[in-house]
């Protein structure tokens, strides 16, 4: 289990490890590849592969969710509810086994 927190509140998001999709492994691989140890998890990546230090805007995050949800045949609206609630940029806390 991995827990993420939002800098704007004490709200925590628990992400189960999973057996098929393995979301925790995916997030940990992203953090390692992007060399992220603090700050926003979700950041822009330039065409050359350079990762921004700035968080994605909520508009950017929503646009990305819409595109990829539609590509896999999902309705993006239910996935966007959390983005409308405020800051969509959870911060890494720690990996809980």
Overview of this protein structure:
The strands form two sheets. Strands 2-1-5 form a three-stranded antiparallel sheet, with no helix packed on it. A two-stranded antiparallel sheet has the order 3-4. It has helices spanning 23-33, 58-71, 77-84; strands at 2-6, 12-15, 43-45, 51-55, 90-95. The chain is globular and about 30 Å long. The termini are close together. The chain is built from three helices and five strands. The chain has one domain. Helices cover 34% and strands 24% of the residues. A hairpin with a 5-residue loop joins strand 1 (2-6) and strand 2 (12-15). The longest helix is centred in the middle third of the chain and has 14 residues, at 58-71. It is an alpha+beta fold and 97 residues long.
How are the SSEs ordered, and which strands pair?
Blueprint: E1 2-6, E2 12-15, H1 23-33, E3 43-45, E4 51-55, H2 58-71, H3 77-84, E5 90-95
Antiparallel strand pairs: 1-2, 1-5, 3-4
Helix pairs in contact: 2-3
Count of all domains:
1
Tell the overall outline.
Answer: globular
Structural class: alpha+beta
Number of strands: 5
Strand content: 15-25%
Radius of gyration based on Cα positions: 14 Å
Give the oligomer, counting copies of the same chain as homo and different chains as hetero. Answer: single chain
Distance between the termini: 6 Å
Given as residue ranges, the uncertain stretches (5+ residues, pLDDT < 50) are 87-97
Mean pLDDT: 76
Main sheet specs: 3 strands, antiparallel
Number of helices: 3
* Elements, N to C (H/E): EEHEEHHE
Spatial strand sequence of the major β-sheet? 2-1-5
- Helix residue percentage: 25-40%
